[in-house]
Amino acid sequence: MVNPQIHYGLRLTSFAARNFRSLCDVQVEDLPPVVLLYGENDTGKSNLIQAVGVWLRIVQALALATPKLLKRRDFSERDFEFGLYETYEPDWSDKAPPDAPSASEILGPHPEALFRYGSDQFELEGELSLTALSSDERRYRFGFRVSREYGGQFHCTVLTAIWPDGRKPDKPLALDEMLLNKDVEALRQALQNPWQQIGAERRFDDEWLPREPTDEQDRPLDPTGRNLKLWLFRAASGFEADRRKLFRERFAPLLTRQPFALPEPLPVVAADGKLELLLGDYPVEHRGSGPQQWVLMAGLLAMSQAAVAGLEEPEAHLSWEAQQQVAETLRNLVLDQSCPPYQLFVSGHSQLMLDICPTDTVYYKTTLQNGETRIERSVDLEEIQARFAMPPISDLRPRRLLAANLVRLSEDAVQHLNATVGEKLFEAKEKDGSLRLVTAKWMDDYLSGNMGRDGNERKDD
Question: In terms of C-beta density within 10 A (0-12 exposed, 13-18 middle, 19 or more buried), how is residue 399 classed?
Answer without folding.
Answer: exposed
